[in-house]
Write a structure and sequence with these properties.
The chain is an alpha/beta fold. The protein contains eleven helices and eight strands. Helix 2 (34-42) packs across helix 4 (69-82), helix 5 crosses helix 6 and helix 8 packs parallel to helix 9 (194-203). The chain folds into two domains: 13-241, TIM Barrel; 245-272. Strand 1 (26-30), helix 2 (34-42) and strand 2 (47-50) form a beta-alpha-beta unit.
């Protein structure tokens, strides 16, 4: 049965909850710069995540840990200037919220004031409860992130699927319910068993966005560079590449280099 789709001039946190209640799936992609964000927004994406994955795909770091709050604000500001419809959510980077609720609030306020973003996202459950409460009490919308949390990669020691064991699965479910109770408007679930993700989505009223969490959640998110095939070395099971942009761009750039070297570019019609 097809689900009716409502056209939103502006997607808001409330829009996402309405979409879940209607059974309409939510689309979410990352962006880190003006040009890419403009394309992603105009294509109809509901949520744009300015992810700390910029540390990997934009800066070439092995993990998300090195990116700073100032750098996240820079990327977020660039994205916000391009977006007319999508909800823009920005990751709080590692070290800016985990240990001190007051610092967490300062970090969230800086992102909201200096970038113009619409919401922030944080990784973790009961461990960061006080930080989440402090941010929400200030009126800043918060999206949670459970399961595989890349900022904790050195704690886990691996990017393998999380919450396969009963104890961790039960804690994840409790954390999701806690984040909803605190007032989060949505949660990203990363790399957990599909059956558990479906159970979480059914147990809460807020949208659950999956990445490697199966199809029975309320929406999906991918890193744009992975989805359009700009990156080639990252190939998890959950990733579907809709383009092979790496190959297309390499071919085009090689042709350009060849034309310059052989003096085929510019030709007579391409000069003044």
């Amino acid at each position: 049965m097809s689900i009716s789709k409502k056209e939103y001039k502006r997607v808001t946190t409330n829009s996402l909850i309405e979409m879940k209640s209607r059974g309409e799936k939510i689309s979410m992609l990352t962006s880190y710069d003006y040009s890419m964000a403009k394309i992603v927004d105009q294509a109809g994406t509901d949520v744009i995540l300015v992810g700390d994955s910029a540390s990997n795909v934009m800066a070439g770091h092995e993990t998300t840990l090195p990116i700073t709050l100032d750098q996240m604000i820079y990327h977020a500001s660039s994205v916000v200037r391009a977006v007319q419809r999508a909800l823009v959510v920005v990751d709080l980077p590692f070290g800016s919220y985990q240990s001190d609720p007051k610092e967490a609030l300062r970090s969230a306020i800086r992102i909201m004031k200096e970038s113009g973003a619409h919401a922030i996202k944080v990784e973790g459950g009961h461990q960061i409860k006080d930080s989440v409460k402090r941010i929400l009490n200030a009126g800043v919308p918060v999206m949670g992130h459970l399961g595989l949390t890349p900022q904790s990669i050195y704690k886990f020691g691996t990017y393998t699927v999380r919450a396969k064991e009963e104890q961790e699965a039960e804690q994840l479910l409790k954390d999701a319910q806690m984040l909803e109770k605190l007032g989060c408007f949505g949660i990203v679930l990363e790399k957990i068993p599909a059956q558990l993700a479906a159970k979480v989505a059914e147990s809460v009223q807020i949208p659950i966005i999956g990445i490697g969490a199966g199809s029975e959640v309320d929406g999906q998110v991918l890193v744009i560079h992975d989805m359009i095939g700009m990156t080639t070395e990252f190939s998890p099971r959950f990733l579907r590449r809709y383009l092979n942009l790496f190959e297309s761009m390499t071919t085009a750039i090689s042709e350009y280099v060849s034309d310059v070297k052989s003096k085929r570019f510019p030709n007579n019609e391409e000069q003044y």
